[in-house]
Give the backbone structure.
Amino acid sequence: MKCSFCDRQAVYFKRISGVAYCKNCFIKHVEDRVRWTINKGKLFDWNDNIVLAVSGGKDSVVMMKIVSKIERNFPDVKLTAITIDEGFNGYRVEGIRIAKKFSSMFGVEHLTFSFKDFYGYTLKEIIDIAEKKGSPYHPCTYCGVLRRKILNVKGREIGATKIATAHNLDDEAQTILMNILRGDIGRLIESFRIESQKYEGFIPRVKPMKYIPEKEIALYAYYSGIDLYSNECPFSKLSLRSEVRSFLNDYETRHPDVKFSIVSSFEDFVNKIMGKEDLMKIKLNRCKHCGEPTTREICRACELLEDLKIL
Ligand code: SF4
Ligand SMILES: [Zn+2]
Ligand SMILES: [Zn+2]
């Protein structure tokens, strides 16, 4: 099959659009899509100090490659890659090596922060304590909440104005569906409203990869010579996310645009129903333990650690 844009041999056929891409046109397609996402959502300003959350996995390294390429045209933009070492039986060691290697290749400063230094406990130690205490929460809850707090605190320390994460289209569709299945869509809408606004002490989150399917990122990584991070977190297969991922992938074989439909209809819903004025109405307090911005009295990270008596 020939590429739909040039004479070269196609390497990828996109079923939703019926378009075939050669390697070069495919790379351009992914980069254009990220550029479009940044422009459409006004994700970055010309003088932003951007933290890129880079785990070392393919998604985050591809994000760093494309964003650093796009932002090279804006000399007042500062980029810093941050990797969080959760401390789980050496699982992140390879990721940190890859993150450092590609940060230096793309000319981005790289910093690593660990759960152990920040909280006094590794994720493994926290999960062991949680298990002994019969905690109802999945390890991913501790991991996600505690990781986000480190990013906000360390990002603020280096003067960051945005935190970019590499959530892709599959991640976003899974998150929306998971929240619906858990009956927790209100919390998702709340975080959507918070993340799209500016609050003192809270660094806005942006997701430049949110319209790129996971398989396109994998293909882009392959054609760009980005090492695939083979270590998989032991908890990734046990979660509700893993069940939802299988369901969506299966459904997608019959309805190719299902993931994009879920994400775009959720965004339409939030923007239309809430309206801009309501979006401004959320009031953030300061956590009475740590001072981080929160909608409650105590932030979620302090609440989780307090329940385990390790705050
Ligand atoms: S799968 Fe869960 S525990 Fe593992 S890195 Fe991801 S969020 Fe953390
Ligand atoms: Zn082509
Ligand atoms: Zn707190």
The longest strand covers residues 78-85. The first helix runs from residue 23 to 40. Strands lie at 12-14, 19-21, 49-53, 78-85, 109-114, 162-164, 205-206, 285-286, 293-294.
